[in-house]
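#struct-help
A.M.: can someone run this one for me? Single chain, 553 residues.
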Amino acid sequence: MNNRFENLIYRWLRTMKIPVSKTYLKQQLQSHHDYPSLISITDTLDNFNIPNGAYAVEKEKINEIPLPFLAHSGIGGGEFELVTNIEQHIKKHPDFIKQWDGIAVMAEKPERLENSENEKQLSKEKKDSRLQLYFTIIIITLSFFSLWNHFSWLFAALLLTAVTGTFTGVLIVQEELGISNEFTEQLCAAGKNTDCHAVIHSKAGSSRGSKWIQWLNPIGIGLSDATIIYFGSLFILLTISLFYGAMPSFVSVFFLLASFSLPVTLFSIYYQWRIVKKWCPLCLATVAILWIQFGLLLGAEPGTELVEVAEGIFAGFSATAFLFTLFIFFSIAAIWLLLLKPALQNNKELSDKNFSLVRFKNNPEIFNALLQTQRKVDTTPFENDLQLGNPDADLQIMVACNPYCGPCAKTHEILDKLLRKNDIGLTVRFMIKTDNKEERRLLAVQYILQLAKNKASTYLRKLLHDWYADMDFEKFSRKHPLDEDQDVGETLKQQEKWSEESEIKFTPTIFINGHELPKQFKANDLKIMFQSVERIEGDRLEKYIAENEFIPV
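D.P.: on it. Structure tokens below:
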């Protein structure tokens, strides 16, 4: 599956200078049960706490839409386009207005993007990007140090083309595996006749060629394989030969390789021009690099310890250099074809399968059907229950907790966020034993219930939030001193009796309208119950839309 959809949303948010993690954004989009769709976009933005809305707009009012926005068209079963400049977009895509169905997705940058997981992933991405950049620079720099004692502009140019070719090969591999990036997408969509995907995944471009292509290529090496193997091997060979001062022995071998590559470049140009009728900028870049290498070797001058072409380019041919070249090429081919590429493909397939299962799991209909099969307990309210939110809401969540429980603290944080965003009820009960009066869990629950007695739900929310922030009795009691002792003995017995009758074996245990949460789901999965077409818009965006009479989708 190509990642164009996720990359489009990522570019849109980055255009608005919203700092989102590409990895986390992809996870949220691909795990949505309606991926890829409009609702998967708006639900994901809601999860990021980004004000957004999807609206039906009269086409005559397109110039009034705040930029940038996502436009939905009916082509290809429904696709989105990023519009950052309306005039330029129409000029580049003349049929845009005709294909656009009037649906526009808008958003605005929040004052602060509050999402801890996004911040965590964003920090990791920045760190990984720096490491990749550092290692790439170090490796390339060290390779060019091989020219120190044997400098030649020819050698330097060949090394540069090998580096460029290897980089191009990596981009082609990413495109083949569906791991496209922003640079590749923009390059491959530069014009209406450019389409890297069509060329790379064609019969000649991939390993699944026609019968005559399979006869010429029995082991099924695709365009991406050939590019990464050829330039990767060439880069290693050039670096080694230059370090050891053996470059003159390899010139004839390199010329031989460059000569054999020329028919392939001619075939590539013909195939793109006449068969696929689309151009692949990455493939054309590869063709250009191969011709540049051939031209460099063909124009070798005497005085650089290279033989003149007129006297025979192969006068300095070395059987040892030829065999060593074969060794490097076959070694790189084996490592790539047998180890690296299968690992990348398996990882991509597992990722796609995992997201397919997650989407199935996140389907609200599946969740509700499974929930009804779970055991049901009595959730009749107590007189002094720790009832948060709306006690009359259709959806009531009850959680059995332990006051000294790390997972309970995390669950409470998740449920508190759901409570802030949705009209629901949340009841917190504790699994305790009242026989040991000095047991720390009992003392903590007793103190919390004394503070909570006859208090409003807003105070109860703050009380439980402060407790689970540290789970430190001394610190909590200093922050929330008890004015007078309250009799909560009956409530403690009720909680103990309910825990026993409900057969609470572990904490936290969550119940939805009395039904126990299926074991396949965690507290963080409960957000799927609140996914709907209604959106939370920001004040400025909501005001702008209202003034322009745009209709919410």
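A.M.: thanks! Residues 376-517 form a domain with the Glutaredoxin fold (CATH 3.40.30.10).
D.P.: also worth noting: The chain has three domains: 4-116, 148-354, 376-517.
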